[in-house]
Write a structure and sequence with these properties.
binds pyridoxal-5'-phosphate, 13 helices, alpha/beta, 13% strand
């Protein structure tokens, strides 16, 4: 049982084996130099101090070697994306051949749908969750239109039940029993951005595949937050950004997963560029197209090294700290946060994120009855950085990499004083 004192939060920080990691980040401060209580690592993760050094190294190599930097220096640019693969694969429970870092997230969803959304006259619908992130919804709606279908009819939503906020797997099963024969693709957020619900990816894949649907997962809110096992889940593909929990900077690149079962299939429809052409003959520019195996076979362009350097810095930290340890702290920190929220003496607050730690990451989505955005502004004025979703939800992510138990304690004290 937790306690509600500052003294107790200090003890938790003292006993936290990952407390030292916070020192390795730049924590934003107000004008007086007071550190912000930063709870939006689910939107833009903070900057690791080492990132600058990793990017500088590439700037120096560019200055020193020019085009020869593709082959020279400690981390030559030609195979640069390969330096990211193993560590990224570890984070999402994949095999190296299943993972590549390239482009940005929504772009990758489209590229993957080129391969895995193959509608026919009778099997053409796409299923998403009703609270899907807007970009994902726009992406699938535009794919439907591009293939000549009307999203009003062909976009199917998996919805929470009346009066509920969370999705139930048995409702997905029901939907698939009724309409599965017409559905070509399921594209689901593995961790829902709004509620923080971590869905059972393996069950989704099994249910979808039983009806002959392809299954894709958007892991934007999952990568670096929860420990999915993408390979074992059997999903066909997944994609995620790296600027949220993966701390690699605004607008940074996206990770892509294509299951090993598709790794050697050269017949899959896909778009091509020189970067998914066989490495061995890539610069022998007269060869006809010979697609690479594995997830690398979805690349198009030579990648932006400066952004990849930031990802490399972050992945090195994840490898040092370990997902296991992060997840351990995450469950404790979020559990403590939940406890403190529950101690607030009011009926106006409801946490809509699942209570079961297995069904959530670090984020809690807190519904405040009768509140409006002025609550969010007042929190911000007091250095509490959170995310507001209309009509009345505050999304807060205590991130185990850099948030402390004292951050959580102080945040809840300030929230209490504003209610
Ligand atoms: C953050 C997020 C995006 C953002 O997409 P970009 O292409 O990186 O701008 C898309 N989908 C989900 C589910 C997200 O959480």
């Amino acid at each position: 049982m937790h306690k509600t004192t500052l003294q107790y939060a200090k003890v938790l920080d003292k006993e936290d084996p990952l407390a030292y990691v916070r020192e390795q980040f730049h924590i934003p401060t107000d004008q007086e130099g007071k550190e912000w209580l930063y709870f939006t690592g689910n939107s833009l993760g903070l900057q690791p101090k080492r990132t600058q050094q990793y990017i500088n190294q590439e700037l120096q190599d560019w200055a020193k070697y020019g085009v020869e930097g593709h082959f020279e220096g400690e981390t030559p640019w030609l195979p640069y994306h390969e330096f990211l693969t193993d560590k990224m694969a570890n984070i999402v429970g994949a095999k190296p051949i299943e993972v590549v870092v390239m482009n940005t997230l929504t772009t990758n969803l489209h590229l993957l749908m080129v391969s895995f959304y193959q509608p026919t006259k009778n099997k053409y619908k796409i299923l998403i969750e009703s609270d899907a992130f807007p970009s994902d919804r726009y992406a699938v709606a535009s794919q439907l239109k591009f293939h000549g279908f009307d999203p009003r009819e062909a976009l199917i939503e998996w919805k929470p039940r009346e009066g509920e906020e969370l999705l139930r797997i048995e409702d997905l099963e029901e939907l698939l029993n009724h309409q599965g024969d017409e559905i070509a693709l399921l594209l689901i957020g593995g961790v829902n951005y709004y509620t923080g619900q971590f869905l059972d990816i393996k069950s989704i894949a099994t249910l979808g595949h039983a009806k002959g649907c392809k299954v894709g997962i958007d892991l934007a809110h999952g990568a670096g937050n929860v420990q999915p096992d993408l390979h074992d889940s059997g999903v066909d593909f997944a994609a995620w950004c790296t600027y949220k929990y993966l701390n690699s900077g605004p607008g940074s690149l996206s990770g892509v997963f294509v299951h090993e079962k598709h790794a050697y299939n050269k017949e899959l429809p896909r778009f091509a560029g020189w970067w998914n052409h066989n490495k061995k003959t890539r610069f022998n520019m007269r060869q006809s197209f010979d697609v690479m195996q594995g997830a690398e076979g979805w690349q198009l362009s030579n990648p932006p090294i400066l952004s990849m350097a930031a990802i490399r810095a972050s992945l090195d930290m994840f490898a040092e700290v370990g997902m296991e340890a992060l997840r351990n702290k995450s469950e404790k920190l979020t559990g403590y946060f939940e406890f403190l929220i529950q101690q607030i003496d009011t009926d106006d607050i409801k946490i809509i994120t699942p209570e079961n730690p297995v069904e959530r990451g670090c984020q809690l989505s807190i519904q405040v009855k009768n509140a409006d955005k002025s609550l969010h502004h007042k929190l911000t004025e007091q250095n509490v950085i959170t995310d507001w979703r209309e009509p009345d939800v505050i999304r807060c992510a205590p991130v185990p990499m850099y948030n402390s138990y004292q951050d959580v304690f102080m945040m809840v004290e300030i929230l209490k004083s504003l209610l």
